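Hi R.,

Here's the chain you asked about this morning:
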Amino acid sequence: MKTTVFDEWIIECDEWITASAYSKISCGSAQECGCDDCQLFVKLCPSIFPRRVRDLLEGLGIDLKKEKEVSEFGFGRARPGMNLYIAEYDFYGKLVAGPDAMEPQGSGFTINLRDIEEGAQLGFTERSSYPRQMPFRNLFPLTSAILSVWVPVETNLGLRSALRRIGRIAARFAQPLKRGLRLR
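And here is the predicted structure, written out as C-alpha cells:
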C-alpha cells in the first residue's frame, strides 16, 4: 500500500487493486440511469472536478467515469443559478488520519465535506453504507471518496428541454385564443 497526503487527510491505498476493480465495471451509475441530470453529469464529469482532486483520485486508482452513486440537488438557494452534484467513489484502502466525512448524528449520519476550492468539496469515509459495486464487495479495507461540485444551471440539458416543451405547449394554447378574440 502507498501513503498519500492530501490537505488534512492521510490515506493508505493500493491503486492497482482499485484500478483492477474499476476495470471490471462497465459504467457508472449516472450512465446506467440515463435521466437528463445524470447524462449532464456524464458529459461534464471530465471537467467539473478541480484538477488536483482529479489527480488525487486517479492516483488512488479511481476511474471518475464509474461512480457508484451520483445525486443532483436542483437549484441551490445558497448559489442561485447553480445545481449541486454529489458523487461517491470507492477505493481499496483506509483513512489513516483526517476527518471522516460521515459524522454520527442521532441514529444515522450527516455528511460533512471540506472545501477544496470555490464550488467544490471533498471528503473520505469508511462508513459508507451505500451498496458497493460488485468488484468492491469483497475488498477490505474499503474507503469512499465523496465529491460535491456546483454546476451552472444554464448547462442543465433537462431544464432547457423542459422549458422548450413548456413553450411549445403554451404556443399551442395561445393560437386558438388569438383566433377567438376579435377586437373592435
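One quick note: The beta strands are 2-6, 9-13, 69-75, 82-97, 102-105, 108-111, 114-117, 120-125, 142-152.

Cheers,
M.
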